[in-house]
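TA notes, week 10

Several of you asked for a full example with nothing omitted. So below is the full record: structure tokens for the whole chain, then the designed sequence directly under it. When grading your own attempts, check the secondary structure regions first.
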């Protein structure tokens, strides 16, 4: 494989972590979703698209902005890189959520899969980075209100777990895969684990990724990381 990779969204939470891991083995160039791609054409074999917004609740308030910043930007990337392999970092929301956020992520996936049979979609479940200031794990750690039922199922991972998985596997797969911990837990169990003061009120959902990949990390790996963050 050509060792030159273009990482779009390389300064975001997921992108910055991927850049850290990939740069040890590959020649990585990072750019933003609004950059002019003309000078970057035909210089890379692989394009990693990690630039879609993770701001789910903002998408409900401004669906037109979310569409522009996800679907329209994905279209721009695909038109600019017509021959390269595209890897889209997506979310299991595209499979399980029938709302603005989920629908737009699904549209992005469909565009990428039609573009090239070599392309890859990686859907992420509940994910946490120590740089995060939003999300279920962050809210539990900060004893903030959770707008979901405490029985909501999750199989969370840390950003480092994902980046390690990516560097070991991104050349092996095509089509769509989902990554997450091997076992499930629920929000209430995580709250209890660290004596968080978070209160839960909302829908009971299943936010777990599929378990079709071999050698997924044990949930205990995430729980050890989670407990350390709470100290």
């Amino acid at each position: 494989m050509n060792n030159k990779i273009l990482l779009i969204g390389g300064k975001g939470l997921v992108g910055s972590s991927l850049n850290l891991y990939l740069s040890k083995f590959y020649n990585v160039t990072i750019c933003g979703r609004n950059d002019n791609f003309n000078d970057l054409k035909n210089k890379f074999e692989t394009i990693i698209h990690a630039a879609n917004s993770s701001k789910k609740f903002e998408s409900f308030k401004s669906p037109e902005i979310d569409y522009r910043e996800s679907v329209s930007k994905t279209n721009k990337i695909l038109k600019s890189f017509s021959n390269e392999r595209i890897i889209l970092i997506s979310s299991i929301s595209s499979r399980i959520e029938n709302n603005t956020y989920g629908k737009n992520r699904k549209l992005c996936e469909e565009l990428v899969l039609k573009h090239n049979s070599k392309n890859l979609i990686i859907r992420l479940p509940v994910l946490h980075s120590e740089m995060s200031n939003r999300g279920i794990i962050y809210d539990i750690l900060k004893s903030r209100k959770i707008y979901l039922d405490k029985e909501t199922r999750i199989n969370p991972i840390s950003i480092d777990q994902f980046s390690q998985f990516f560097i070991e596997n991104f050349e092996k797969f095509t089509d769509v895969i989902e990554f997450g911990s091997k076992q499930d837990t629920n929000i209430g169990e995580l709250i209890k684990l660290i004596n968080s003061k978070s209160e839960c009120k909302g829908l009971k959902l299943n936010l777990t990724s599929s378990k079709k990949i071999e050698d997924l990390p044990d949930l205990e790996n995430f729980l050890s990381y989670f407990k350390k963050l709470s100290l």
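The longest strand covers residues 85-91. Use that as a sanity check on your answer.
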